[in-house]
Amino acid sequence: MAQSRRSVVMLALAIALGLRLMEWIVLGGPTGTGTGIGIGTGKATVVSSDCSSDAAKKKTSSSSTPRPRGLRLVLMGDSLTRYSYLSLVYFLRWGTWYDPDWHTPHLVQASSFDNIFHNQTWGEHSWQTNRMLWPNELCDCFRKMPGAVQVNKVVNNRYFYDPAYDNSVVYLDAKGHKGTLHGRIAAQNVSRLLYQQGLAAIKLGPSPVLPPMDKLQRPFAWVHKSWSDAISNYVAQLDPPPNLIILNAGLWPNNFLYQHDLIDDMVRALPSNTKAMWKTTSFGKGGKVLHKSIPETDALLCSKLHSCWNQSWTQHVTAKYYWDDKHFFEPVYRIMNEDLLEQIGSLPEGYQRLDRSVLFQK
Ligand SMILES: *[C@@H]1O[C@H](CO)[C@@H](O)[C@H](O)[C@H]1NC(C)=O
Ligand SMILES: *[C@@H]1O[C@H](CO)[C@@H](O)[C@H](O)[C@H]1NC(C)=O
Ligand SMILES: *[C@@H]1O[C@H](CO)[C@@H](O)[C@H](O)[C@H]1NC(C)=O
């Protein structure tokens, strides 16, 4: 079992890398940011529609699924926010959403990466999903396993940039006010590292020289106690700068309800031309409100920030789309992301949305 899963993963990786190389060559490398010749959706889409995912083959229309362009997003929040990020950047990378039928492993379920190579499920998930997005993503990811999460030691920040469609999406791990925001990559180094990774992917040819699994803790390059400091001192230094910061606290303890100045400080910390959006906490399995403080917190933040990414519809999602009491399988995150893209005016012309009622059927 482990052996066959391993071969599937290796095969998928080989195909992904091969396609990527073709795409980089066709598109003329990482400097081609959508303005040069032949960068048109045509070529890029042809390449990505060949992506190994079954979804691409089942839906004949997927070869023309238009991708958004020019996204400038930063997401700060919990594991649900991280899975939304993964769902979105997988689509941006390949032009097709992750096939929900691929359960072993599943993009948005860290525990499904158990025992493919070894015991380090969490590291394995970060590493393999980073490979799926190669060379467009940096994963600043480290967690000492086994053992419980140590909030001020675990690192889980991810940086995606696709030069073909000029999309930048960053995920920063934020556990409410339980711990610090921190990481090992300086904001001003992110774009250079991504650029070098893109170049390396071209130069190294077909030999899959991919990032080694991160088994050693390295020192932090940045640590901030408050979200507003993280916004003004880290997020604001990212290149390209975001135009939208999406925030959420989920189930992590936070003081927003009792200290409104924490919210005002965040809004003040925003760089000019950057808006803040609150992502509400989705419902747990069986339509459960996961903590009594959540509805009030969501209502407050949604009213105080510029906009609201409302997940209230998840109350009706059938149990089979959950892999534990609160985390979803695809296509739940896909539908969330389609809501987001539509709300911010980034759903391309002619894009066909998935009908969310499929998630409500037993
Ligand atoms: C893998 O996990 C099992 C059960 O948690 C444990 O007994 C075993 O020692 C682990 N093996 C390695 C190589 O870490
Ligand atoms: C940022 O890049 C510079 C120049 O390569 C390097 O010296 C420095 O160590 C990097 N810092 C971090 C924290 O990544
Ligand atoms: C989210 O949408 C639902 C349904 O429209 C609404 O009842 C709820 O108040 C909204 N939540 C927030 C926080 O705005």
Describe the largest sheet: 7 strands, mixed
- SS-based structural class? alpha/beta
> How big is the Rg?
19 Å
- Residue-averaged pLDDT: 82
Note the gap between the termini. Answer: 29 Å
Beta fraction = 5-15%
Categorize the overall geometry.
Answer: globular
The total count of helices amounts to 10
Bound molecules: 2-acetamido-2-deoxy-beta-D-glucopyranose
Give the tally of β-strands: 9
Unreliable spans are 19-62
The string of secondary-structure elements, in order, is HHHEHHEEEEHEHEHEHEH
How many domains? 1
> Helical content, roughly?
25-40%
Give the neighbour order of strands across the main sheet: 2-3-4-1-7-8-9
The protein's oligomeric status is single chain
Give a nutshell description of this structure.
By secondary structure, this protein is an alpha/beta fold. Helix content is 34%, strand content 12%.
Descriptive overview:
The protein is of the alpha/beta class and 362 residues long. The strands form two sheets. The protein has a seven-stranded mixed sheet with strand order 2-3-4-1-7-8-9, with helices on both faces. Strands 5-6 form a two-stranded antiparallel ribbon. The chain has one domain. Strand 3 (155-162) and strand 4 (167-173) form a beta hairpin. The two termini are 29 Å apart. Helix 1 runs antiparallel to helix 2. It is 34% helix and 12% strand. The relative contact order is 0.14. The protein contains ten helices and nine strands. The model is unreliable at 19-62 (pLDDT under 50). One 2-acetamido-2-deoxy-beta-D-glucopyranose is lined by residues 280, 298-299, 302, 308, 310, 312.
